[in-house]
Amino acid sequence: MATGRFHTSTGTPVPAVTAETMRRVDRVAVDDVGIELLQMMEHAGRTLAFHVLRVGGGSALVVAGNGGNGGGLACARHLANREVDVSLVLDRDPDELTGAAAQQHRILQQMGVPTHVGPGFVSENDSADVVVDALIGYGLTGPVREPADELIRAVNRHGAPAVSLDVPSGVDATTGETLGDAVDPDRTVTLGLPKTGLRDRAETVFLADLGIPRAVYDRLEIEYENPFGRGFWVGLRA
Ligand SMILES: NC(=O)C1=CN([C@@H]2O[C@H](COP(=O)(O)OP(=O)(O)OC[C@H]3O[C@@H](n4cnc5c(N)ncnc54)[C@H](O)[C@@H]3O)[C@@H](O)[C@H]2O)[C@H](O)CC1
Ligand SMILES: [K+]
């Protein structure tokens, strides 16, 4: 199993964490320290949008699911606010979204961002400059099921560069194994701390700050040296 750490370009070591440890970090951040999930999601969506704009230009297709990785929905808002022509493709009917994903989606509806459901719409939008892969993150459980599997294959067939949120959808965040189909992105924007499963992957990995303070890592005895310097994201090497 992949373990160990990454380094920033200036040599700062950054511990890699399993999905289980990251879930614990999130829990302490929310339950003990009082940072809301939506606050973290906003940072995720904004930094993801920054990287999407580096890859693509005029139009973006955002593929999203119902979990925390639905931070791609916040990204869609930030892109649309920058005059990017954004379309959304979900793995389920919008009425089936819950929690933070439902809340983010309601905002997109107010903005008039078009929502489609299912893989057919990925190929129909094949003129998009960039695909945002926000379908599944560290919450992947077992081999990818329908309809996510078909969506993932459609993203890979699309041809435009893909930017994955946290981990490429279909990749086990802890082991790096692909459980069935997995998105093959140009870059991955991972959140808070890099996941162990990203260590041996070929694409470029960037780490986005979620605003999680050192106190959270201290409580969990995770050795943490600020990797961001005075910035809000950083490139990583294994
Ligand atoms: N500190 C952080 O890293 C933070 C990360 N955030 C983001 O939240 C996700 C994790 O969120 P979670 O709700 O636990 O799960 P996911 O969104 O990854 O997955 C749920 C989503 O995926 C579907 N799904 C799961 N397994 C399968 C499968 N085998 N086949 C098909 N579909 C599957 C499920 O139905 C849900 O739709 C993390 O990666 C980050 O992106 C937080 O935003 C903030 C802190
Ligand atoms: K993803």
UniProtKB/TrEMBL annotation:
Q: What is its EC number?
A: 5.1.99.6
Keyword NADP annotated:
yes
What are this entry's molecular-function GO terms?
metal ion binding; NAD(P)HX epimerase activity; nucleotide binding
Task: Kindly state which keywords UniProt assigns to this record, in alphabetical order.
Answer: Isomerase, Metal-binding, NAD, NADP, Nucleotide-binding, Potassium
Residue positions binding K(+): 69, 133, 169
**Cofactor comment text:** Binds 1 potassium ion per subunit.
Say which domain of life the source belongs to: Archaea
Q: Which Pfam families match?
A: YjeF_N
Quick one: which residues bind (6S)-NADPHX? Answer: 68-72, 137-143, 166
Question: Which reactions fall under this protein's catalytic activity?
Answer: (6R)-NADPHX = (6S)-NADPHX; (6R)-NADHX = (6S)-NADHX
- UniProt xrefs under InterPro entries: YjeF_N_dom (IPR004443), YjeF_N_dom_sf (IPR036652)
The chain positions of domain YjeF N-terminal read 22-218
Similarity field: Belongs to the NnrE/AIBP family.
Q: What does this protein do?
A: Catalyzes the epimerization of the S- and R-forms of NAD(P)HX, a damaged form of NAD(P)H that is a result of enzymatic or heat-dependent hydration. This is a prerequisite for the S-specific NAD(P)H-hydrate dehydratase to allow the repair of both epimers of NAD(P)HX.
- Entry protein name: NAD(P)H-hydrate epimerase
Please name the source species. Halobellus rarus
The gene behind this protein is nnrE
